[in-house]
Design goal:
A: about 400 residues, MetI-like fold, two-stranded antiparallel ribbon, 12 helices, 8 strands, B: mainly alpha, 4 domains, extended, amino-acid transport (chain A), membrane (chain A), General L-amino acid transport system permease protein (chain A)
């Protein structure tokens, strides 16, 4: 006759205690209660004082100001904006500018960062020393210093438009920024764009096709000549059939400034340059650490298979290093986005500059405006970290299986 | 076996083989590390060109073409110098005081110099691992020095001591609670009962601390309030420590230590004449230059440590609400840019404080920076805490130590030692980030530099580059020094892993 094992006693109280107070038990619960009471008291004090202070300064709290007319101009607006628009529009203009400068900065920072990292790991002594010197120099100077340096010392001392430095009489470099020819759409534009998109799509699909063919038939296929001829050929054919897609409006010096062409503001150039070079130094260190974390034997194995150094890096080392690199790399991208708020120092109209700067000084709604600004940056951070942890979770699952 | 010679003896010497390609020495180095493949040769040439185009003009600008002596902008113009002009060092000489002290009154600058000297004197032995008495040194630098530096730089004296402060704090607390309670009670319904309860609690606190407030008023009306207050505090604190540490059996050590600390405080009060008004007050609006940069960064470093430790412990705690609060707090400060934090501190914080209570602009910024840096430090320290094996805490727990003793005596010292390099890195970031205070109208080193560009007496084509070169060198020396120190510590910590 088998004796059934008795189930353990339910221990409801112990479980409840654990749930409410953690390992510290009832003491932990008491601590929490006191802590919450203190928080409530602090919150009460803050709200009470803020209400009193706002009443004294005759500031009406609330988000009603967002629909008022802004009445100030913004030097770079990528979405339609005029002085008669509301503060909400100003907010959107600033947000778009922040995203644009971050996006361009991230692209350049990644390219420079990878190049510097590969330079630091290069067997070439001079190249590795130069890359190391770049990283040390850039990392040990404040970002604001570098932004001001580029803006005031480098771009600010360029000649005025009349004596501007010109490249092929089409690009002009002066203290008003860079003036470039502006493309103007013509009859063949639609066909050209469609042809280009199709070419890009096929070029992106080609490697997958080549891979499948390699696995099925064992015949390797060199992709890039096909891709290149597609990318050049298709738009070219479209141009030949439907006519010129666009012409360039060449800027010309008229009086004291340029007429025609598109102008890239010096603030934008300085900010992007400083952000990209600064973040690139950090990215270079991350990439270097990632590549060095891959075992030396991988590199040697690649070399013994007859792969060149470049191919070994591209096909063997970097894919493995990417697992180590990606989380801190995302962190750097976030840092770059947050650092773009330093635009306020040189007057580039990013989110912080037009919203927490100009709008705040015009309306005096400190609490609402700073709360909105902080939550925008916070939202960007949280979304990115959520994506990253999802990626890490997937990576961990695929490694585990 | 016929046809083969019985033996073969070579009659002449074999020609010596050519020497292997030299791989050592300078030529070998050039051959193996610079020109071993065509690609590398091209890269070397490009690199050399790059160096030629950057380093040579820089050296030429900073040293060879530079103007070293002069009194105004005319000396730094090409016409006066007779050659192409590089850096205009007289500009830096003329503005040096502004770069270091800002607008600090000239007669009082010895106070700044003395503070710098004190900091160096306390910091150097702390950084050299072989020097003994680390905990005393750390205590002096992290606790005593900031207080002394405040009275040196800002000036002013004291009217009361710990007893008066405690009484002020508690009476303010009880007043605030009672006020909140009475407001809530006026709301009616369920709130009136809760409000009355809170009001009753506030009144009870007021009654409980009544002897204390009476004592404070009596002391403040006496002839020498500071010394009486100080003596009472010293006696009460030392007595408590004596009793808590074992009374007549083995409390003597604690008593002696406490009395020694109070004697030290008394000496400081006496030497700095804090009881008689202290040094003349220099408003923090007059501070500037390197002084503000160092004050902000050192205060940030010192105050962010306790904040970081508390948050790291909170995040690892098993108590639900405390952990959630720590996580939210850390992620909030890490998710926003520092400049929004500074704006928060400058524009929002004054609204949150009582109307009659104004906070100095520098202090507001310091609060913001302490919270911001604390959140970053918390993550670094948490990394160190996670690196300590669980067995350490479990062993200490088996010995019967409490949570605080386990943390303070066993886990935290090991964790902090692990993360010194990480902490130094976050201090470097903090030091660089102090330049942002120039955006909220404080004139730190970068702000002073920007202000000095506006001076027409020194406006020459090279003034901008000269100013940036000088400031850049200052920032670089500090940051580079810190990063080298961090590498040194890392090397020392990993000494057992070296092969």
């Amino acid at each position: 006759m088998a004796i059934e094992a008795r189930s353990p006693p339910p221990q409801f109280v112990a479980k409840l205690r654990r749930l409410l107070g953690g390992r510290a038990g009832w003491g932990g619960l008491l601590l929490q209660v006191l802590f919450v009471a203190a928080l409530i008291w602090v919150a009460y004090e803050i709200v009470d004082n803020a209400r009193g202070n706002l009443a004294n300064q005759r500031i009406a709290s609330g988000f009603g100001f967002m629909s008022q007319t802004a009445g100030f101009g913004v030097s770079q607006a990528l979405i339609p904006y005029s002085e008669a628009d509301s503060y909400t529009r100003v907010f959107l203009v600033g947000l778009v500018n922040t995203l644009v400068v971050s996006f361009i900065g991230i692209i350049f920072a990644t390219i420079i960062g990878f190049m510097v990292a590969l330079g630091r790991l290069s067997p070439n002594w001079l190249l590795s020393k130069i890359s190391g010197g770049y990283v040390e120099l850039i990392r040990n100077l404040p970002l604001l210093f570098q932004i001001l340096f580029w803006y005031l010392a480098v771009l600010g001392t360029l000649p005025n438009p009349r004596q501007s430095v010109s490249v092929f009489d089409a690009f002009f470099l002066s203290n008003r920024g860079i003036v470039v020819p502006r493309p103007v759409g013509e009859a063949g534009l639609d066909a050209f764009l469609i042809a280009f998109v199709v070419a890009v799509a096929i070029a992106l699909a080609l490697p997958a096709y080549a891979r499948r063919r390699l696995f099925q038939t064992g015949k390797p296929m060199t992709v890039w000549p096909f891709a290149l001829s597609l990318l050049i050929g298709l738009p070219l054919i479209a141009t030949l059939i439907f006519g010129q897609p666009f012409s360039f409006e060449i800027p010309a010096l008229k009086g004291f400034n340029f007429a025609g062409g598109a102008r890239v503001a010096p603030e934008f150039v300085a900010l992007t340059l400083a952000l990209a070079t600064y973040t690139a130094a950090f990215i270079a260190e991350i990439v270097r650490a990632g590549i060095q974390s891959v075992h030396k034997g991988q590199m040697e194995a690649g070399a013994s298979l007859g792969l060149s150094r470049g191919s070994t890096l591209r096909l063997v080392v970097v894919p493995q290093a990417l697992r180590v690199i990606l989380p801190p790399l995302t962190n750097q991208y976030l840092n770059l986005t947050k650092n773009s708020s330093l635009a306020v120092a040189i007057g580039y109209p990013d989110l912080f500059s037009v919203f927490a700067g100009t709008t705040l000084s015009q309306t005096g709604q400190a609490i609402e405006i700073i709360a909105i600004t902080m939550s925008v940056y916070l939202l960007i951070s949280i979304v990115t970290s959520a994506l990253m942890s999802f990626y890490g979770w997937r990576l961990g699952r695929s490694l585990g299986s | 076996m016929t046809g083969l010679p019985a033996s073969f003896v070579r009659q002449d010497l074999v020609d010596s083989r050519p020497a292997p390609v030299k791989t050592t020495g300078f030529t070998g180095f050039v051959r193996t590390r610079l020109f071993n493949t065509p690609t590398n040769a091209i890269l070397t040439i490009v690199g050399a060109l790059l160096l030629w185009l950057t380093v040579v003009p820089t050296v030429k600008f900073l040293l060879i073409d530079a103007v070293w002596q002069g009194t105004s902008r005319t000396d730094c113009l090409a016409a006066a110098a007779g050659h192409e002009v590089g850096a205009c060092w007289p500009f830096v000489q003329a503005k040096f005081a502004q770069f270091v002290y800002g607008f600090y009154p000239e007669d009082e600058r010895w106070r700044v110099n003395l503070t710098f000297a004190l900091a160096a004197l306390l910091l150097l032995p702390l950084l050299i691992p072989r020097v003994p008495a680390k905990s005393l040194n750390a205590g002096l630098f992290f606790v005593a020095f900031p207080v002394v530096a405040f009275f040196l730089l800002h000036g002013g004296g004291l009217h009361g001591f710990a007893l008066s402060w405690t009484a002020d704090l508690l009476s303010g607390f009880s007043a605030s609670i009672s006020e909140a309670g009475s407001k809530l009670a006026a709301g009616g319904g369920v709130f009136s009962l809760l409000g009355s309860l809170i009001y009753g609690f506030g009144s009870a606190v007021w009654v409980l601390i009544w002897p204390l407030s009476w004592l404070r008023d009596a002391i403040q009306n006496a002839s020498r309030p500071l010394w009486i207050d100080f003596a009472i505090t010293a006696v009460v604190v030392s007595g408590l420590l004596f009793l808590l540490n074992g009374g007549f059996r083995n409390g003597w050590r604690a008593l002696v230590r406490s009395l020694a600390i109070f004697a030290g405080i008394a000496v400081v009060i006496f030497v700095m004449r804090l009881d008689r008004g202290g040094l003349p007050i220099v408003d923090s609006r007059m501070w500037g230059g390197l002084l503000v940069t160092l004050v902000v960064s050192v205060t940030g470093i010192v105050t962010s440590m306790p904040v970081g430790i508390a948050l790291a412990l909170g995040r690892r705690s098993t108590i639900p609400l405390i952990r959630i609060f720590s996580v939210l707090f850390i992620e909030f400060w890490r998710g926003v840019p520092l400049i929004t934090v500074l704006f928060f501190a400058t524009y929002m914080l004054p609204l949150f404080l009582p109307g009659n209570f104004t906070v100095d602009g520098l202090v507001r910024v310091l609060i913001g920076i302490a919270l911001f840096a604390g959140a970053y430090n918390a993550e670094v320290i948490r990394g160190g805490l996670q690196a300590i094996p669980r067995g350490q805490a479990e062993a200490a727990s088996a010995l019967g130590l409490s949570y605080w003793k386990i943390t303070g005596l066993v886990v935290m010292p090991q964790a902090l030692r692990h993360v010194i390099p990480g902490l130094v890195n976050s201090f470097i970031a903090l030091f660089k980030d102090t330049s942002l205070v120039s955006i909220v109208a404080l004139f730190d080193l970068l702000g002073s530099l920007r202000a000095s560009f506006a001076d027409p007496t020194w406006s020459t084509p090279t003034t901008l580059f000269t100013g940036f070169a000088f400031t850049g060198i200052v920032y670089f020396v500090f940051c580079f020094g810190m990063s080298r120190y961090s590498l040194f510590v890392e090397h020392r910590l990993n000494a057992h892993r070296r092969t």
